[in-house]
## 1
Amino acid sequence: MSSVLIKNESRLGLKLVAPAVGIIGLLVIYPILFNIYLSFFDVQLNGTKTFVGMENYTDLLGNPRYFHSIGVSVIYLIGTVVGTTVLGLAAAILMNQEFRFRNLARGLILLPYFAPVISVVFGWQFIFDPVNGIYNHVVVDVLHLTDTRENLIGNPDSALFVVILFDIWKHFPIAYLLFLAKLQSVPKDLYEAAAIDGQNAWGRFWHVTLPELRFVIATVVLLRIIWNLNRFEDVYLLAPNVETLPIFTYYQAFAGIVDQGVAAAISVIQLLVLVGLIWLYVRKVLKW
Amino acid sequence: MSSVILRNVNKSYGNLPIVKNLNLEVKDGEFVVLVGPSGCGKSTTLRMVAGLEDITQGEIQIGKRAINDLPPHKRNIAMVFQNYALYPHMSVRENIVFGLKKSGADAETIKQKLADVSEMLKLDDYLDRKPADLSGGQRQRVAMGRALARDADVYLFDEPLSNLDAKLRHHMRTEIARIQHQYNMTAIYVTHDQIEAMTLGDRVVVMRDGIVEQVGTPMEIYLQPTNTFVATFIGSPAMNLIEAEIEGEDLVFDNYRLPAAKIANVDLQDLKSHDTVLVGIRPDFFEDSALSLKRSPSDNLFEFNDIQVELVENLGFDKEIMFKLGGEDAKARLDLRSHVKRQENISMSVDLNRVLLFDTSPQGMLLNAGEV
Ligand SMILES: Nc1ncnc2c1ncn2[C@@H]1O[C@H](COP(=O)(O)OP(=O)(O)OP(=O)(O)O)[C@@H](O)[C@H]1O
Ligand SMILES: [Mg+2]
């Protein structure tokens, strides 16, 4: 675009986003500031606050459960981000081929994404039910892989992987959709040129598809990290024993010994991480 | 380098035939040019050789092997695409050496080829740019460089110079001719440009509607077109075709009687089986009689007297004269020595050895075929 057009566009853009920026400012900035403020207090349920300085932070950094939840979150993030990206990419490449009923298949893939969390969560719990679930039926009764029926969701270690699987299944369609949209716009003759230059199917994927997709891949990865760093409902509903960072925060703030000050401190730290990621996103990804 | 043989090659999309029973042999080291109107199947033919379109019927051979079922990346060909198809995320340099690297060339060869190609195509200043930051003509040169850098068995060009300005086009044309001779490359070259076809091709293939109308050297195509389509498609301005009655041994139109016996390669017996024929005269073969050029008794000239000039277009050295012949618009190309003016009456002469006769069937076949 010429620089004149860009200037005009950005001027119009500013006018268009101004009201939204105002509203977001009120709805987002205020709670954030209040949260930061809270993190320096000991907050009682009745509302009385006592200033404690950095105590919430030092408490937190001395709490092994906090670090454990960070560890769980990191595994959860790596698993879900890699999983959704790879599965979404594979599905997009598959759905970019010509075959019968392609349009139907393209639509069906989106179903998990549109299905309400609450109903599919119960479906998944049922699949892994130790007594009646299809998973144990197949593994123990049909395939005879083991003799013991496992309660995969009951055990926090295995539940983490169920939760990861669930998130991949539920959210890969959004990655798929973004990839497919981009794939459809890759000029066909680039593949032809690469074939002429001696590249087989794998080489063409590596030298044409991936470079063409890199912006979208980076976007998907970063968006997935940002979303899943805060992901609460999927995890909590399916397996509340998997203590990722948001779940740990929730337990701190609203369950057992309520400690909103500490919860606020956790949020502040998490916010800093997120801000870092968003900065990366805006500066690096959107720049490409 | 390798030869390319197309044997009874057909291509259809669904029931629609696009290329019909095409036979062509491109010899090792030969440069063959495909010309024909838009949509006649030139690109399709090229793409079948490249392996980018499958062959509905027939066989294509590169060297000694049939390649029908060989995917493009195993055919060892290089191709310049009609719309460049440069890799957008790679620099010009990377684009040029991409195929070369894949073919396993060593670093020294790659460096040498890159230097050669970028100097020849005047790309030195752009090597680090991305294709998006180049003009159309520069992109076309990169696409050209990417193909020429390769050490391929066959080179395919799909209108590679169509986006260049006249000067650059001329430069590139001579460069291609030079490289072709230097490396003795086997090439199939598609173009709309008559000059490219005439100057580059060892042989020219004229196509229409998926059918090969004529294959021949540029001079054969120019002097001995097998039918009226080739006659009018090749050469600019197009050959004049004038319908003439056959009276005895004369070809008659307007007030002119051309003696058929003096026209080269005419079979008088055969000619008498026709009522009318088309007389083909290239605009280039008219001469202004007023210039009283040196004539010798052996000259076999026919004078067109009293021609009324309707229009004169001065093109610098050449000038194009428009007039009527046999009731149709006709053109002659004279040069600046001639001083004809609009609305003047002049006489022009034509060498009867250069006059062609075609039958009046829809194909318009050449009647007086001979040696060039
Ligand atoms: N996928 C397709 N389906 C149906 N018809 C097609 C398809 N691709 C090309 N054609 C038709 O095949 C014919 C030949 O096309 P081709 O591209 O070979 O022409 P061309 O001689 O290269 O023309 P140009 O000089 O304009 O590039 C055209 O009439 C075109 O409409
Ligand atoms: Mg074409």
## 2
Amino acid sequence: MRQVARCWPRVLLGALMTLSPLTLGGPAMGQGGPAARGMHGATPFEQQLAMLDAFGLDKRPLQQAPRGVDAVVWAASIPADNALTPERVALGRRLFFEPRLSADGTVACATCHDVTKGFTDHRPVSEGIKDQLGRRNAPTALNAAMLTSQFLDGRSPTLENQARLPIINPIEMGMPDEASAVKALAGDAEYQRLFQRAYGRAVNFDDIARAIAAFERTLMLLESPFDRYLAGEKNAISAEAEKGWVLYNGKARCQTCHPFNLSNPLGSDGRFHNVGVSARHQKFEELATKALELLEKDASIHALDRLALETDMSELGRFMVTRNPTDIGGFRTLQIRNIGVTPPYMHDGSMQTLWDVMDHYNKGGEPNPYLDGGMEPLALSEEEINQVVAFLFTLTDARYAEENQRQMERQQEIARKKRPFRDEAMAFGRRLAFEPVKKEPRP
Amino acid sequence: MYAKRVAIGALLWLGCQTGSGAGQTPRARSERAPTEETVEVKLCDDRTTTTVPKDMPPTRENGQRVADSLMSQWKREHPNQAWEMKVTQSHPTIPPPADNRKVLEGAQRTDQTYALFTERDVLTWERETLKLVQEGARVFHDAEAMEGTIGVSCDMCHPDAANTHPETYPKFQTQLGRVVLLRDMINWCLEHPVKAPRMEPDDPRMRALEAYIIAQRKGVTLEYGKH
């Protein structure tokens, strides 16, 4: 449990850990649970739940907007038929950790959105049932409640809609259909009781998704050193990070796509941009031609879900949803809250460190015909890159402080050895995109 | 000191300082002349003056007395000038920002990610704009937030920001002897009747004051240079 932030007393934690099997209940959680059969790399759920308990998220009054969020915008983001209640949140929490919602009982939401890993899996791409790998990196489920669309191509409009898809995606949780998921829980007397209490109905698929969404709305982690700094506590972040914040708003141009304000505190504009991540290894035109043929036959959300997770067409991003040529290779701006603890980065998990991310932006992204107009070489010096990175590490919620520190050291170590995306000639405009790379002496 | 503390930090965190920061700042008492028995207070016109005892507590009541004394002199000298003087409101009325819902109507452009707007975008614009204006209203009504030293705040002479005429800027201000922007005039008034230090143009309080003053004139025709 080293990931738990120092401020949470160990005694309390110990007590919670002994309690958690009780609060968990469910037969699949015990000895016969996924731990025994291989967790696809996830931290044991008991341990995840203990960490979650220590976060104290259940102490926030559900009728209030979370700290750092505009109350009016928050209220507008909650659907009328799924008002937050403690019963719904409790049910959703249980379902989030419920491997019985997967075909072979080894995968739950928490497998890929692991509490101890900032609600990601720390893998380039995720692994579902039968150890199958997908094509996309799992973004964090933290703060997802404030996103204006779900998934990197925005194919899903809401949390309620999003939660339905992984359960029946063949390479994630792999249930053959929605009815099978309901059947897996419907015989359980405890679930019957919990569904009745939460929604006044028997177990059904819509409410499974609703309850999970309600639980996710409690996962708002927006209390970082940077927030304390903005509130006037000047020493909450280092002088280096402070310079990084100025660059973020100015020379580095991050604010354009990653804006912060109370109405939208995640650092995502919710728009789709081709920042040239997939351009490195794709032939967009060939893929797009193939995609148009397939989508002609079936453009349902389930078809989109499978194409995004199982095929090369994943790299077409938003184009799959809109079939609009300007959306080729466009992905929804990822939030950068808690960014320090959610590596690797980008939709394909292709960047191991925040230094890699900065190298990518510094050279203006990977050139391609669909590159967003907001991308251009930034001419940031090494010192300036370090400043922006230092700033990015201040965006991690205090509850992940220890993991953030560990990640920073780990990433620093990796970046010292290799910086695969670094291209100073392009960053400083000494070489144009079409010119061949020449070996340059290090400055 | 306050300005420096927030200058970098809150530079672009528009309006997010609501309810924090300014109120906790130590007051700049050193602004007062240390040896005199009284302090001279000048009006925004740079002519009308009054004096207050050096050790007058900077309460709202005292501030209002100073403001009233200055204004009664000024009104005597400008009998023909229309000056709106309603009861000062502690809960300022703020007209809502423009309704931008229209951008969501009909078919939106789909060929440009930057030109595609959502309900959330529109709500974000509205809330963030309103919050900056609300913060401005708070500062405008709060001598302490402006680090004023004699308890005078802007609303005491400009109820609901009346008579501030933001729509006439830029214009030549004779007090300042040059063409000025609204913020220059705000700074002038801060130094003069309010007896507060000037604010940096990027000071979040200055940005908020400007926002509030402009918002109060919603619908008025822009006529720069008008006297």
## 3
Amino acid sequence: MSRIEIVQLTQQFKGHRAVDAVDLVIEDGDFVVLLGPSGCGKTTLLRMIAGLLEPTQGRILIDGVDVTELPSKKRNLAMVFQSYALYPHLSVAKNLAFPLAVLRTPKAERVRRVHEVAASLGLENLLERKPRELSGGQRQRVAVGRALVRRPSAYLMDEPLSNLDAKLRTATRQELSELHAELSATFVYVTHDQVEAMTMATKIVVLDAGRIEQFGTPDEIYHRPASVFVAGFVGAPPMNLVVGTVGSIGGVVTATAEGIEARLWPGVAEKRTVVIGVRPEHLRLDDFAANAESTAGSASALSVEGVVERIENLGSEQVLYLRVGDTLMTARGDDFGALRRGDLLALSAPIERIHLFDEATGQRLEWVPEPDELPAAAAQVAVMA
Amino acid sequence: MFVTDVRPAPAAEALSNAAGVSPTRRRRRRVPIAPYLYVLPALILLGIWIYRPLVQTFQLSFYSWNLLPTQPLTPVGLQNYVSVVSSQQLRDALVNTGIYIAAFLVFSVVLPIAIALLSRQVGGRAKTAYQAIIFVPFLVTPVAAAAVWRWLLSDSGGAIPTVLGNFGIDIGDVLRSPSGAIWAIILIVGWQMLGFGVLVVSAGIAGINPDYAHAASIDGAGGWTILRRITLPLLSPTIVFLVLMTILLSAQWTYPMIDILTQGGPSDSTTNLYYLLYQIGFQNFDAGSAGAAGTLFFIAFSLLALGLVTLSDRLSFYDN
Ligand SMILES: Nc1ncnc2c1ncn2[C@@H]1O[C@H](COP(=O)(O)OP(=O)(O)OP(=O)(O)O)[C@@H](O)[C@H]1O
Ligand SMILES: [Mg+2]
């Protein structure tokens, strides 16, 4: 049980800043997932929390105590290494028992815990084997087991499921989620896998080039991405991102790009270059949206016009590739069956599904309606803090 | 009616079955000759210079002969073995060899482990310089080293007796002292072997993935526990290798020092098995006894080597 506070943490390698002034508060009982592309500093951040790497700058506090200078053995953490780091000279059983043996746990208790963990990870038949006699996935499960055998104040896991097959990964994911619910322990979990991030996390940290792009709940990350990077990184297929212009016509804020037109909120906005974002699953075939517009008169929506380039059938759904101007946009749905390559097509999305980002900084833009008294003059597009 | 898919039989298999000859058997009949040709020169040299003398030594051990080509070889049966085994000289040499090996294990295994572990704390260039200083003595030829040490130890103005004398310690002429000479030789050869040991142990430690120690320290282990339960076990193949080298080669490494500094004396106090062998053969001109002793040493060292190699195989973890 512990709260981890990270203040201005920096790791400077030779000529390369792997972690850059990161501020982060991980609350007690949080399941925090560090998500980001390869080389963005996830492992480096985790190793600094674990005490394996001395930060160039910044502090780490666990439960309010500054542990920046504390050796890792005194931090009471458990870690699963990306490289597993199973002790090659010890059997699986002894690997699992090692953390308990170091703490001089009574033998009976040790055996009980090892068998408990082995059973929950399906390792019972492998206990007498040496690590070199295991497959990659089996090694990884032993590595997870070695972390779970103890009850530390926090669990640090570096891509612990990356080598498991799909079925085992789902099962182990659920196992870990249950364990988290049961222990209400703090987890810091590194992964590339968005499904893992979305399903297990209470909070997600999206990292890019050593900096935090966004820290929030999976919902926030997905539905209100703080930057173009987050918008493009989370989601598969990724969000459609098109450079366009914001302006206003007749007291309505609009966003336009080649082949794209959106009527947004009542108000007036200065002309500026933006990135317009909309997720593939929020783009629908236009006819019923057009109907809705004409009947109910709800004006605001984004509409896209383009030429069908390709349709991929994934079984449960289809992915439509649409050439709009000189960009290729994607839409997800299950009703594209009748379309052919070369068909002219209009898609639309509801207003609350449209994301705007500043083109220069990549930051998300949030619309703040001004008080009604001054409708014309003061309405503006505010940069989210 | 239900129909299930029937996989078509692979055509190649059908064909070779029809011919009645399995393709693997046809291939196996022609043994490739080229690889053996490549190693042949080395094998011939090995046979002429190592194995033929070995066989001849074994044959000689059943004869009495004084190495003069004009003298006849007289068969004496096992007489040579009896006289070698019952000789006091052999017992002295055996005891000395044991002392040498035990002492060299300290210089080539124990100290190198300690030095290599400590030098992990030294970083960057300092480490390279530090290791070079320790390794350089190994590169000095034994004869040159012996000459230098003889001057250093000389009781008429040598540096070491002079310095020690200033502290009131009188070591006298160490190389002529029946109790001190062996330790002087151990120190000199040990000084040379230390660098080799440190080099091998450092390489062994560098080959251990640091993540094991990291994982253990997160698991709560302190430096001593990590050393005892992770580093040393993972280093054990290296350690066994060094022990093997020390046991098998220390008699050879010591030989030039004995020959130059003490000639086995005073009163056989520094002789070892190899030096004894040389004395029997080429000072006493007793080829038969030398052959018998050589055969016995060969068998004993072979057994030791076999045991240690087996042990080292069992200790290899194939760290991956
Ligand atoms: N010891 C080191 N010395 C110099 N640079 C390093 C070192 N360790 C990591 N880096 C660099 O720091 C950056 C971050 O590395 P890190 O291992 O944290 O990435 P990661 O996010 O874990 O990537 P992955 O998802 O591929 O595991 C990388 O660019 C890497 O090359
Ligand atoms: Mg990593």
